[in-house]
Design the sequence.
């Protein structure tokens, strides 16, 4: 038997990776220089592939799909490690770069995959948190815009409120608009109300009767920015005031007055 | 030769389209899983292999050459390589634990039914057994001869004859 015939006989075995180590090394060296053997090798590789493709398909458990996609999503594309498996012996013989890529072995351990899954879950939680914060900020921004619009409106006017006896350090100002009836109270130096109490805003118009215009709690630093409801009195207000009331608010003032200011 | 659908799927995959990976999974996961199960005979290991296969496919889609063969063949090759690597690691661990029964003597049992598929039906029983030991258990010719208690020369010609017959049958 010629050397060429001998190599030919190794091809079906090589296609199954069934050559012993010495034969495999020798065969690989030969195939690198022999186009006939390469062609035979490609044909028998297909035969070997048909054995695998002929196995009865078994649908994996339903949860696996999600795990696989999550693991792939966390994995960067296009990076490969050098091949190490025995399959490489005959694939290398096929001598195309694309074929070499087939045999590239990538060790993804269970632990790494679990870490990536956990990372994906943490990222999802972070994204949810960010979405909530964004929604909060959008609301703050919307309020800030409406306050800005109110302040910028040519018909808007400003009334200063002074701190009275129970809260001499308190300061306030009301920006109000007779045409839109919008108004906003900006206050500072307010103490935290006792348990069960809150500050209530009042508008006194031409009827000389205080009309409730919103209940609020100051922020931790004693400041407050309160958009007031559109009440009829805002067409011709004469006085703005803030009193301390039960937390649910009162129909008319019952507690001490902390801020007051007359429209000039 | 790959069908155009395969090619577009793989092109999208190469472009980093995550949805394409889902479609590829839907199409080939059962194949990879069946093959891994046939080789490993263990559900958890087979699932790990399926996961490894598709992560590898995702990473290497850019290098897939449709002219070289179908995605089916590509995925089978990856699944077989992965499963056999795992089988060998498992066997090595069992050798370390000297008391354990070697995997090789595990009886094929009921899941042997999985092995019955059309391609191998054209073979004689002896040829089929030899090819299965090579393909599904990753044994070399000498290992197969030892396993079957037959001369190496007999085993080699049996594998050659089986592969040749299979090649003819596949046209």
Sequence:
């Amino acid at each position: 038997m010629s050397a060429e015939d001998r190599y030919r006989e190794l091809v079906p075995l090589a296609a199954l990776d069934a050559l012993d180590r010495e034969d495999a090394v020798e065969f690989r060296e030969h195939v690198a220089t022999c186009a006939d053997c390469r062609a035979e090798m490609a044909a028998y590789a297909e035969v070997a592939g048909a054995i695998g493709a002929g196995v009865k398909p078994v649908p994996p458990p339903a949860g696996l799909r999600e795990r696989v996609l999550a693991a792939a999503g966390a994995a960067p594309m296009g990076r490969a490690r050098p091949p190490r498996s025995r399959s490489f012996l005959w694939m290398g013989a096929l001598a195309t770069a694309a074929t070499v890529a087939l045999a590239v072995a990538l060790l993804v351990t269970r632990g790494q995959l679990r870490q990536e899954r956990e990372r994906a879950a943490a990222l999802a939680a972070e994204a949810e948190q960010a979405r909530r914060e964004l929604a909060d900020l959008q609301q703050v921004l919307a309020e800030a815009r409406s306050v800005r619009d109110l302040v910028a409106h040519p018909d808007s006017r400003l009334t200063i409120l002074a701190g009275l006896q129970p809260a001499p350090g308190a300061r306030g100002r009301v920006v109000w608009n007779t045409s839109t009836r919008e108004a906003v109270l900006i206050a500072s130096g307010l103490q935290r109300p006792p348990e069960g109490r809150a500050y209530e805003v009042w508008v006194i118009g031409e009827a000389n009767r205080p009309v409730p215009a919103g209940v609020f709690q100051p922020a931790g630093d004693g400041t407050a920015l309160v958009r007031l409801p559109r009440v009829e009195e805002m067409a011709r207000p004469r006085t703005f005031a803030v009193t301390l009331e039960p937390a649910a608010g009162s129909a008319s003032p019952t507690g001490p007055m902390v801020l007051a200011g007359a429209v000039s | 030769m790959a069908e155009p659908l395969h090619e577009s799927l793989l092109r999208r995959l190469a472009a980093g389209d995550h949805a394409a990976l889902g479609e590829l999974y839907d199409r080939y996961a059962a194949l990879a899983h069946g093959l891994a199960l046939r080789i490993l005979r263990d559900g958890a290991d087979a699932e790990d292999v399926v996961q490894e296969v598709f992560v590898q496919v995702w990473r290497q889609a850019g290098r897939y050459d449709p002219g070289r063969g179908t995605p089916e063949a590509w995925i089978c090759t990856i699944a077989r390589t992965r499963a056999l690597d795992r089988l060998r690691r498992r066997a090595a661990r069992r050798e370390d634990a000297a008391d354990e029964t070697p995997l090789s003597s595990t009886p094929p049992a009921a899941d042997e039914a999985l092995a019955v598929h059309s391609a191998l039906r054209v073979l004689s029983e002896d040829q089929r057994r030899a090819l299965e030991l090579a393909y599904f258990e990753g044994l070399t010719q000498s290992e197969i001869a030892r396993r079957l208690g037959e001369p190496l020369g007999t085993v080699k010609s049996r594998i050659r004859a089986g592969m040749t017959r299979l090649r003819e049958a596949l046209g």
Observations:
- The longest helix of chain B spans residues 71-96.
- Residues 100-116 of chain B have pLDDT under 50 and may be disordered.
